[in-house]
# Entry
Amino acid sequence: MKILEVSNLTMRFGGLTAVDSLNLSIEQGEILALIGPNGAGKSTAFNCIAGVYAPTDGKIEFNGEVINRKKPWDLCKMGLARTFQIVKPFASKSVLYNVMVGAFATTDKKDEAEERALAVLKTLHFEHRKDSRSGNLTIADRKRLEIARALATRPRLLLLDEVMAGLRPSEVDEMVEVIQLLRSTGVTIFVIEHIMRAIMALSDRIVVIQFGKKIAEGTPKEIASNENVIKAYLGDEYGAA
Amino acid sequence: MTGKDAVREPLKSEVNRMDNIDDSEALRNRIRKVSLLLIAVVAFGLPLVMRSPTYLHIVILIYFYAYLTTSWNMVGGFAGVLPLGHAVFIGAGAYTSTVLFLQYGISPWIGMLIGGLIATLIGLLIGLPTFKMRGAYFALATIAFAEGVRVMVENIEFLGPFQLNGPRGLQIPPLDIGFANFMFANKEPYYYIILIMLILVIGLTWFISQSKLGYYLNAGGEEPEAAMALGVNVSRAKLIAMAMSSFLTALAGTFYAQFSMFIHPKSIISLDLSFEIAFIALIGGRGSIAGPILGALLLRPVSDFSRIYFGDVFPGLHLVIFGVVLILVMIYQPRGIQEPLTRIYDRIVDRLVEKYRKGVA
Amino acid sequence: MLFILEDAINGILMGSIYGLTALGLTIIFGVLKVINFAHGSLLMVGMYVAYWTVTLTGIHPYLALVIVIPAMYLFGYYLQDIVIKPIFKAEKDVREPITVIIVTTGVWYILDNMTLLFFGPQYRSIDDNPLRGKMVEIGEIMISLPKLWGFAAAIITAGAIYYFFQSTRMGRAIRATSLDRDAASLSGINQYKIYNIAFGIGTAVAGIAGVTLVPFYNTFPTVGVLFDIKGFIIVVLGGLGSIPGAIIGGMIIGLIESVGPQFMAATWTEAIVYGLFLVVLFVKPSGLFGVKYDW
# Structure
């Protein structure tokens, strides 16, 4: 069952067409990666799905419902959560407080929110940091907090925006494990990523776009040997870890 | 290709520390409750000890300002915006209850509530378009509204059937003294009324800070984009906070009208008053519960004294002092003076906890 | 009918002076992305500087510009450097630099009340000046001479500022910084110096506005407050950061203020100005000429 269906998504900013008739879909429970060279339009497509931009054309369906002009908070209530590439923790507050904000999306009571937040932190092996001031965390921990917060909203689909950016190789491996753990809890995951090693290890399927258009789609193996993809990345170093 | 110890289990020492912290927490809570109880006893008992009406008057005004700054804090602190025209709500409350009382004989207690509703409408009117925009627009809108209303009230005698009396203001003749008419011969009843109002407003603020709304307001104020992605309708949360703040501020307006028996636009809808409230809350520390109250407790006496002693020779000196203190605080202690004061309090409590545990162990 | 035309013209002229106030505000906003709440007080300071210059030397008010412009520029430059820059640095990554607004409000208060302290609350005016009360006759219409001078000053200043930002090296550096300060600093531009300069320019423009007012408007410590608020309203109306918007917005306000009383009580006119502000906020917050900023 297709949890997300993007049909002919087009996004124009004035004279610039950032995304051009993009088609993609995600099955429940799978991990789909969207990759492409810099400036390909990945972030724009991502933000259209996340409710930040209203698409110029095309249709985005989540669980069968059209979500084109919906606001981010409504999307969250529907079960679509996202993280930010440049992490935005509520810096003056503790990790637990941060996650509780997410947990309040599922309940009105503080004790329940606290319980659920602690459960999420436990799932991500993060509960020992629950009282740390989130502004003081390392970048890897902040990324983990970002995911924990989004996870607390009990999403059905989680959009991860370059969550590996800025991490060391060992931290990338940790993050891959975290995301695999997420999938095992039943969440469908949509990632944008540059770090090839993570993409290859994580994804069930990969969609490649360039200049706003889809140029390839398939399993990691298929993509790695796809001539168009290699041409698009010609000059880029493989495995930017 | 997975890393070793990919996800770290908490260390044993960290687990031990967590247990010890729980014990201290309980002790800290006990100490806090006892201190609050002591403060309450002192506050309620004060009029029995302090008989001079002049001093009572000063303390009443301190509570009055603490009430105003705490109400202001709901929007200015929790919601993270900068309201600079809050006096308009004071005016709304004061004029509504006074006009209804003088012209129609309606009890000021009822007028108080109606004034609160009118203030809420004004607050929503200001907030609706501006909460989606940059904070500066909201600040501007509050100033524009406050000044606009003041100018209007100053220049019209009658608003429809209601007599506003323009710049001369309205005076409440001291007849029919009694609770029903919110009029008393001595200061004591006023003291207890404003004290109870203050306690209620503090309680409400604390309650909100522990609730979903409080979390949402904090999140929306700190990182609106992230908050929105987590399900927070930031504008709506701010509007709710604004509605509450305006309502509560208006109640204080009625109190003031009944306390001083005379209101006029220049005193009650003045930009000076709006700014003073904001400045005190900011210096005290907006966003915290203790901050605005500490601010009022420390700064109001400064304001009063400088006005009494310097008022003739150096008019406006206390405002210069406020301005300078404000800027210094913003540069060096942007979270307000409650931060260092809280740290001192924490250190004292820590030492008490240490002593107790050493004594027990 | 003729009265209305006369009122309209005088109103537009006065409005251009309002526009000057808004111009300084919009420069500071355009570059620093900060709304300078102290602007009215800067105008007031400019008026006092002009007043004392004329009173002590007896020269023509507009000649006082020679002193006012550099004095105000330096005042604004160092005000930004000493008081506002530390906050800026502390709030570099914050999306909404509210603390800067708070600080400029504090400056407003300090300036107004220190002036009250040192010069007293009395209204001052330069009685013996060549512009006061003079009228120019065009056909049957009487036009206020000081306001005409003010209009000229406003147009010339706006033009000069526009030229400065479009065509001079420094002006372009300032615009670059306002668009993307990190990129600009990578090009070797010292962003904090730019801010100081921009603030200085904005303050100098406020000084010019002060000079245009001094011949016919009373000078007193809180004179800035009214102009401050009107300045904000104009800037919102005309669009934050827009030079023509500031002047034209000012003229609209001036027009409403002068023609309004023909049709309704003067106080309702003031209320209309405030009401217009709220309407613009509701309907088109980016103003008539403004650019849509990313909120």
User: Anything to note?
Assistant: Residues 2-32 of chain C form the longest helix (31 residues). The mean pLDDT of chain C is 83. Chain C touches chain B at residues 34-35, 37, 83, 86-87, 90, 95-96, 98-99, 101-103, 105-110, 112-114, 116-117, 121, 225, 229, 232-233, 236, 265, 267, 270-271, 274-275, 277-278, 281-282, 285, 293, 295 (CB under 8 Å). The CA atoms of residues 4 and 280 of chain C lie 26 Å apart.
